[in-house]
Write a structure and sequence with these properties.
The protein is mainly alpha-helical. The protein contains 13 helices and no strands. α2 packs parallel to α13, α3 runs parallel beside α6 and α6 packs antiparallel against α7.
């Protein structure tokens, strides 16, 4: 179990889960709160992300073996998990995801193959496009709108702005994380924004994407008629994103993991807590 939790980086579920909760509680403003549906939303998040991460490790097993940064620490290259076992894990989690959407409502069941196509398809994208970071962002951006649909069964503009914020936020910090592999990706003809634009311009684009994150969250806050708690959470989240960019320099990537994992995880948790408090107290 410990090996599989490491395979899928289960702790990183923290990035998108608070936004799924935001989508869920946003829907409860106009629809009945259901504990069982909230549980289904959590299951969907865990199953979809587990399938996506394990599939990424399976598809990239040869790349990870060749990359000195990942060869010893990732489970398939170092032999702690067999490739076929990882693929079976993907299939099981994908089926559990679809089964859980069946228990939610017909719309979520209908959309479940599309969601899987996005989150699984991401693993192929760096082989042909530098926009792979945006596809990753799109996969996590399904969290708030998916959770909203679980309760409401219909689309709404406000959760779409939260999804847009996740898209830009995740894409921006994934660009920062990919700076570590710029030379390796060039050598192996893999695509990324750092390969396409270089480190300096990649960091600039990451800044722009995070500015778009601030814009999307500002619009969501205004459209949702949120009160003080939302804007406190927004301010802290924004400050942590700005701080993230101070940690990583073109010629100094030593703090990439601090920027990627710690800062983003804390930012997501704090923002989610304040937004949900706002929704519950109004």
């Amino acid at each position: 179990m410990k090996k599989y939790l490491s395979l899928i980086k289960f702790s990183h579920t923290i990035f998108a889960m608070p936004f799924a909760f935001i989508g869920f509680f946003l829907a409860t403003k106009n629809y009945d709160f259901e504990w069982i549906t909230l549980l289904y939303v959590v299951f969907c998040m865990v199953f979809a992300r587990s399938a996506a991460m394990a599939f990424n490790r399976y598809i990239d097993r040869d790349i990870d073996t060749a990359n000195p940064r990942t060869a010893e620490v990732r489970e398939i290259p170092n032999g702690s998990i067999k490739a076929n076992s990882a693929l079976l894990f993907v299939i099981i989690n994908s089926l559990l995801f679809i089964a859980t959407t069946y228990l939610i409502n017909p719309l979520c069941l209908t959309l479940s193959p599309i969601a899987l196509l996005v989150v699984l398809g991401y693993s192929y994208t760096k082989r042909f496009t530098a926009l792979c970071h945006l596809i990753l962002g799109l996969g996590l951006a399904l969290a708030p709108i998916g959770a909203y649909l679980a309760i409401s069964g219909e689309f709404n503009i406000i959760p779409l702005f939260f999804s847009a914020a996740v898209l830009f936020w995740v894409s921006g910090f994934d660009i920062i994380y990919s700076l570590q592999d710029e030379e390796f990706d060039k050598t192996h003809e893999l695509h990324s924004i750092p390969v396409l634009l270089g480190k300096k311009n990649a960091l600039m684009l990451s800044n722009i994407l995070h500015l778009l994150t601030f814009s999307a969250l500002s619009i969501a806050g205004l459209l949702g008629d949120f009160i003080l708690y939302y804007w406190i959470g927004f301010s802290i989240f924004s400050a942590l994103l700005v701080y993230q960019h101070t940690l990583v320099k073109e010629n100094d990537l030593s703090k990439v993991n601090l920027a990627f994992f710690t800062t983003n995880g804390i930012a997501s948790l704090i923002f989610g807590a304040f937004v949900i408090a706002d929704l519950l107290l109004k």
